[in-house]
Amino acid sequence: MGNVSRLLADYGPAFGQALLLTWKLTAVSFVAGFMLGTVVTVLRLLPLRPLRFVLTVYVEIFRNIPSVALLIFIVFALPDLNVLIDYEPSVILTLALVCSAFTADYLRTGINTVAGGQAEAALSLGMRPIRVITAVVLPQALRAVVQPMTSLLIALMLSTSLASQVPYPGRELTALVAKIANDSAAGMSAFAVAAAMYLASGLLIAWAGAALEKKVRILR
Amino acid sequence: MSIQSILKSTVVALAIVTGAPLFAQGTPINTAAFDTLVAQGPVADAATIASSTWASKIKQAGKLRLGGTQTSNLFSLLNEKDGKIRGFDASLAQLITRYILGDGSKFQFTQVNSSTREQVLINDQVDIVLATYSINPARAEKISFAGPYYTSQAGVLVKSNNKAIQSYNDLAGKKTATQAGSTGPAILAQFAPKASVQEFQTHQEALDALRQGRVDAYVTDHTLLLNVLSLGTGDAQLAGAPFGAQDPYGVGLPKGSDGVAFINAFLKKIEADGTWAKLWTVSIGQRTGSTAVPTPPALP
Amino acid sequence: MSRALEDILFGAPNPKARAAARAMSVAVAAVLLVVAAGIVYQFHAAGQLDARLWKLFAWPTTWGFLAKGMFGTLASATTAAVIALVLGLVLLLGRLSRLRFARWPSVAVIEFLRGVPTLLLIYVCFLVLPSAGIKLSTYWMLTLPVGLSTAAVVAEVYRAGVLAVPRGQTDAARSLGLTEAQVFFFVVFPQALRYIVPALVAQLVIVVKDTTFGYVVTYGELMQNAKVLIANYHALVPVYLVVAVLYCLVNYAISRASKQLGRPMH
Question: Inter-chain contact A84–B200, Cβ cutoff 8 Å?
Fold first, then answer.
């Protein structure tokens, strides 16, 4: 315990900044990935075979590629293609792309839970298909996938540890633990603190997700 | 596509069949000379090995666990075609292996980088680390060093068309690459405190960052920079003369190991009989166009 | 029963709608081709289509080298998967136990391993454990954290499967006089497994992805070998591209294999 308090005295502010950075990366990547994933899902519904094919390939690629490989490609290989993206946007891009692929998958499952009769009824009311999707199906689908999306958000938060693999400006929690372990003997305490922070954040997200789910879930 | 580029592609396609290396960074190493040098190295007698617990342990295990790099052009580069690692550090490692075990190829290689060099020794993952490893007091608290076997100062590398940076004095506010865990960050803190530093895990990544324009300059050991005057696309140049203190490279060993005395004796031997100079010529001198063989640093 | 949404919204269109859809498809295909051409042009403009960068893939030694890396990846992944499956079962049994002193530690371990990033666990094995005297080999420094991390998730997947088995099965088995252990291992668990095989295989894909952290502990796997090729030939884009494709293919193959097995949960 004495170790931990000494550690916090030395590195307290650094841990606070690291936590904020982790949260910031999580939030930005999730919002971007979620919106992108929703767009992909909707576009996959349209009866345009080339588009569906390309988007299916997109989802398969970003579901199966290791995030590290993707990040390394974006940071180290893209500049050779004359596309130079700075480190922070690179990390966010990587996380968002992977998040969007999983979102597209989960959302598709959510859409499957919406009874077909709803769409048929909406059509018979004279609604155009796109409007049926956006006004009838999508809202219900979103409400149905709160739980897997919460898991995805937690997984995304844990994936922000990726940022420690590139010369990122600023340290998030994992990079900070690695640095402390390298520079001093307080590695175990640093790990305990970081683990506690990750756990607490995860529990917070899980609790918020459960509350949201209870509020918006559709009882059939 | 012009006729010329089509013709060029055809020629290159023909070259594919022969597998001739059309592209190499600087002059490739003379593999025959290197392999001969390593195969002719001295072998220790039983008494010498018995006098060192570290060496005896290795002899008993039948192989030397080596921590090094495979991606450092002058010092230790793996040729994936024949599976052999060649370079100045690699030659020393293989000579040490031959010295203890009689055969320079009986080593088990673990790739390390500047962030993991100490840890692999502390973890007992390797017996020895040869990876352009600078001796400094902070590291000497965690592990022991044998040598020094080489010294180098720091240098600044910039792209050829960069006129703004003439020496380390011009690095204020510039994005500068260096290797994490190396002496680079400390040198920059001392000589160019206002530089905006980015730390990379390997020499290769830092070079690529310079080539791709992510950073304006790369500060690291001067010798590492000597061979990088051609980056492939867009050339590089050294900005200013080597600066800073003479950086001694050492052989990393577990803390308190008696391997230190053993290796120091070995280094004295190969420096005395001219092997060191020959190694330097084949690995570094011939490839960077330097003919003046430096004197090896004094051993404690 | 219910048709897919696409069928309902866009199925059986009238001739005008069909023509419109065809026209749009052609337009979209044209746009995608332009985008693809743009990407190829970008490669060309950056000099990345130069044969000197790609010729290394014509050599069998290159592929052999990459294969060695892939072997390292799969060796670690397989062991980690086995650890995850076995340890996950142990944690599950603890979680489902009626004994409090078995249940609470299991819940704590599961929540802890799920709530901490795998990379952080790997750093701990590499940087922190040795100073506490625990020295693992490079292989185990990667495989153990990945296995532990996945075990926790696998335990939860098992649990979801077990909860999905109809209660009647357990009741019937008990009324037949089977012991609790027999009820679980012969009646409930086999049925649970068939529901969750896709989810388990998805975890296997995640295990393969996690092995890319191998270079953090200096374990030789595919990413590591890619860097050697790059140091030798400076073909950053081709090598990383090929490696990314290899990973995608392996993981895709694993996912496809899962679709042949198991059935979806009710």
Answer: no
